[in-house]
Amino acid sequence: MSKPLKQIHLAAHFPGVNNTTVWSDPKAGSHIEFTSFAHFARTAERAKFDFLFLAEGLRLREQGGKIYDLDVVGRPDTFTVLAALAAVTEHLGLTGTINSTFNEPYEVARQFASLDHLSGGRAAWNVVTSWDAFTGENFRRGGFLPQGERYSRAKEFLATAGELFDSWHGDEIVADQATGVFLRDAKAGSFVHTGRHFDIHGQFNVPRSPQGRPVVFQAGDSDEGREFAASSADAIFSRYATLEGGQAFYTDVKDRLAQYGRRHDQLLILPAASFALADTDAEAEELAREVRRQQVSGATAIKHLEFVWNRDLSAYDPEGPLPDIDPDVSDNHISKGRAQVRMYRDPLATAREWRELAEANNWSIRDLVINTGNRQNFVGSPATIAKTINDYVQADASDGFILVPHITPTGLDDFADKVVPLLQEQGVFRTDYEGPTLRHHLGLAHPDEASDERAAS
Asked: What pairs with residue 139 in β-bridges?
């Protein structure tokens, strides 16, 4: 007897300031005007997606002392954008990336509880830590936490926020018989937390929200990050969008759940994925090549190489060979606020590998970056992409995907119109929303129901 088909979860990552973005395309629009956010969100909702996802940048990135080109338009505040989108959508989940290193539990819990009320139960929190002292300078804290401490703080941060969300649980409103005024027990919202990172007490001033707590996402890939997700998250934002890599990650993380008394279906694994969609597979392949060359201009290729070499390479021709000099392995990085710097932990080994690849394939600097950097995960006609996505999900390489188009704000339109109907015809994606909250979309229990279930077991 064959197992039933899994239902696919789809979400949309607003492209904004990331390396998939193609600014030079005539269809590219603003990354900061509200009309762009609104169009993108409405398209995702029209396609019955689970949620919209916003990344967060707490400081403009720099390269060689200058603002990195993708950041020149700035980075608007996550909560402000999501609250505004709550007013122009009805069902779409609203997921924001909020840092646990530089914020405080009361402040973040209050903002998410408010967003959950305003949206009718559609809020989600992608919990992240900050890794660099450069970003920390905006908060007068620099790199005050070593890497191991960041997850320690994040775990306590999330637990403390949970105590605040739950502080109104079970309190009943009663009417004063003499005055007719509705009153609540004075202990409503009361909290006391004493721990290693936080020592706070008082009263939380936002009542229990529709979801009880926002849906919690986590994005770490380290062993500690995976363990954090298995213990505390509702979904994990994965970077493994290939079949084999996705299956290995899926098995590893899902197998960690049992030790926390959780079932496999209580944590969703959702990789980010880009796509090149055209009428035929051949046209899509050509589009994918064109997009990659648009994404990696000559200047961008040089900047990417500087992540590894940690040197000013502006004098080098991007259409020429790789530098003969070795990378500077000092801790004084010329790239500030760039996550890519962490990816190349052994710059000398990476440089040797890249030189060998460039020599074997007769690649220029730009060719190398195009061929070793991020590529479109799904390339093909609507039928091909629909089949590939479904194959991955049914093979337990993921529970769905968070799609990152290369055009803002219309890059999701064709996917919504051409791929989603095919998934719906196959019976693996909803034709309409079945409940009002994001927890309904994701098939996740309300925290109160989950507590009752654990108590019963």
From this structure: none
Predicted pLDDT of residue 401:
97
Eight-state DSSP code of residue 139? G
Going by C-alpha positions, the residue among 449, 274, 255, 448 that lies closest to residue 377 is 274
The CA-CA-CA angle for residues 21, 27, 30, to 5°, reads: 65
Closest C-alpha to 372, from 305, 288, 272: 305
pLDDT of residue 127: 93
Give the DSSP H/E element, type plus range, for residue 98.
strand 93-99
| Among candidate residues 220, 240, 239, the one with its CA nearest the CA of residue 230 | 220
Is residue 409 reached through a cis peptide bond, with omega within 30 degrees of 0 on the bond before it? yes
Q: Is the dihedral of CA 156, 158, 161, 162 positive or negative?
A: negative
Residue 190, strand partner residues? 203
3-state secondary structure of 380: strand
Where in the chain are all domains bearing CATH 3.20.20.30? 9-280+376-456
Question: Do 117 and 210 form a contact (C-beta atoms < 8 A)?
Answer: yes
**CA 116/CA 178 separation, integer angstroms:** 34
Q: How far apart are CA 310 and CA 111, in angstroms?
A: 39
Q: Tokens representing 235?
A: 């979904």
Q: Is 212 exposed, middle or buried (0-12, 13-18, 19+ CB in 10 A)?
A: buried
| Interatomic CA distance for residues 104 and 3, integer angstroms | 45
CB 147 within 8 A of CB 118: no
Rg (CA), the chain: 23
Q: Which of 46, 50, 70, 48 is nearest to 408 (CA)?
A: 70
CA 285 to chain centre: 27
Q: Between β-strands 173-175 and 182-184, what pairing exists: parallel, antiparallel or unpaired?
A: antiparallel
- The pLDDT tens digits of the residues spanning 249-272 come to 999 999 999 999 999 999 999 999
> Does 9-280+376-456 carry CATH code 3.20.20.30?
yes
State what percent of residues in the chain have pLDDT above 70. Answer: 89
Strand partners, 192: 201
| pLDDT tens digits for range 309-324 | 999 999 999 999 999 9
Work out the pLDDT band at 430, boundaries 50, 70, 90.
Answer: very high
Residue 229 to residue 216: CA distance in whole angstroms: 9
Which two tokens mark 218? Answer: 């986590």
